[in-house]
Design brief:
The complex is a heterodimer of chains A (113) and B (114).
Chain A (H helix, E strand, L loop, with lengths): L3 E4 L2 E5 L4 E7 L5 E7 L6 E6 L5 E4 L2 E5 L5 E6 L8 E8 L8 E3 L3 E6 L1
Parallel strand pairs in A: 2-11
Antiparallel strand pairs in A: 1-3, 3-8, 4-5, 4-9, 6-7, 7-8, 9-10, 9-11
Chain B lengths: L4 E3 L2 E4 L5 E6 L6 E7 L6 E7 L2 E5 L7 E4 L6 E5 L8 E8 L8 E2 L3 E5 L1
Classes of the chains: A mainly beta (113), B mainly beta (114).
Chain lengths: 113, 114
Amino acid sequence: GQQVMQIPQYQHVQEGEDFTTYCNSSTTLSNIQWYKQRPGGHPVFLIQLVKSGEVKKQKRLTFQFGEAKKNSSLHITATQTTDVGTYFCAGGGGGTSYGKLTFGQGTILTVHP
Amino acid sequence: DTGVSQNPRHKITKRGQNVTFRCDPISEHNRLYWYRQTLGQGPEFLTYFQNEAQLEKSRLLSDRFSAERPKGSFSTLEIQRTEQGDSAMYLCASSPHQGIYGYTFGSGTRLTVV
């Protein structure tokens, strides 16, 4: 079945440093989505990418979808303490699994003030 | 609608007992999903519905797990003969039917099997 892998598992940064997490799928994806989960909370939708090579920005966050639609990245510029949490990518399959997402194991971001 | 609602928030049960969780999705969302999350892991797919139809069920799910969405609105997830390995956060999410949309997750039900 479809597998989605994320690296790194943990990232500790000083406030103001940049952060990047990478996501790779074993199969071509119909779309990729990113979620953020604060400690003790539930995943919250950030963005979805659909097109090959797509790049989207949300303030300090930049999301990319690979040309082959099998990998993605999230980059945060100048991290803040409010960025703390776990960032998950989630890949959408095709066919009957079109609406179903397979989540990666997440990258836990810690920001030291 | 204020979002996806899940009840109860916490459930402690003895091994071998049956438990049932409820999820009320956002009313205009046709799709409803159940995921399970353990500490340090991403949400793991269990099953999903489009209206009242259960479209897919994880092959990892044993026959002890069953889910229903009888009228295409709320859903229930039942676990029979609970085992300690069932201890996890059970997350429900919903999304609109058409196109590709992000999920809206509920706050989850944390199950502890003792």
